[in-house]
Amino acid sequence: MQSSGHRFRDVEHHPLLAENDSYDSSSSEADMAERVWFIRDGCGMVCAIMTWLLVVYADFVVTFVMLLPSKDFWYSVINGVLFNCLAVLALSSHLRTMLTDPVSMQAFPNTTLSLIQQALCFGGAVPKGNATKEYMDNLQLKPGEVIYKCPKCCSIKPERAHHCSICKRCIRKMDHHCPWVNNCVGEKNQRFFVLFTMYIALISAHALILCGFQFFSCVRGQWTECSDFSPPVTVILMIFLCLEGFLFLTFTAVMFGTQIHSICNDETEIERLKSEKPTWERRLRWEGMKSVFGGQPSLLWINPFAGFRIRRLLLRAKKGGPEFSV
């Protein structure tokens, strides 16, 4: 479609802006500080609540069924502190994944497309319905310049963006939509998703090891002495914990491996499944890891609280609470 000397095309995905270009906008960051990203999807919210309940159940069984009745004080203290710390890190990573806009605020070059770039950068997500004729006419595009839009959400489409039917937005570097975190895994929250899968795998393995020790000690001694609960209740609780631990360990270990492989190859799962040829400069191995986790390898890589601003939450509370993006 020809309009005002530029072309406006409906495409599903096509590069619009260079990935390595940068655009610093303090106003956009300030606006983003006032927003909370949350997907109001019924299935996703149920799955997210189930995730928390399953972690709380595992913590209950480990703490009150296995560790507190133990006669070995240091065994209980060390394993209790370790398991609960891993559980807090897992749930914190889950929250950061769920409440973080999956599209990076790192934006776009300061060219004639600056209005587009600021719109894409505002709030992180690609705005819905901004690819209108009136809006395009106000962009002052160069003659012959091609602009691509998503026909599903009618928004201007940046490079490596794909439309999510659940989020109802175009998500840049979208890997997949995960109902367990009720969000898309994209450019900005992939790090937290990797940490979430890693910590869930660790607490699952830890719970399975503790269950093995508990069964061994109960069989070798007296069932009535190895737990404060009755033997049938203890067995049922530990069997459910073993099943939960085995399933979650298998699932999250596989997801962790695929995410690391995706990061090291700078290729999302959607791009791999669609066999899309890279039109961007790929960041392989350690360069890809540093681009996702930020900077040189350090303990900050495994810290889900890195970059968290308490003052921003307090400012939101004073100004009447957060705004939900979706």
UniProtKB/TrEMBL annotation:
Main location: membrane
Palmitoyltransferase DHHC domain span: 149-275
Keywords for this protein: Acyltransferase, Membrane, Transferase, Transmembrane, Transmembrane helix
Top-level division of the source organism's lineage: Eukaryota
Gene Ontology annotations for the cellular component aspect, listed alphabetically: membrane
Chemical reaction(s) catalysed: L-cysteinyl-[protein] + hexadecanoyl-CoA = S-hexadecanoyl-L-cysteinyl-[protein] + CoA
Enzyme Commission number(s): 2.3.1.225
GO terms, molecular function: protein-cysteine S-palmitoyltransferase activity
UniProt remark on domains: The DHHC domain is required for palmitoyltransferase activity.
Protein name listed in UniProt: Palmitoyltransferase
Species assigned in the record: Nothoprocta perdicaria
Gene name per UniProt: ZDHHC7
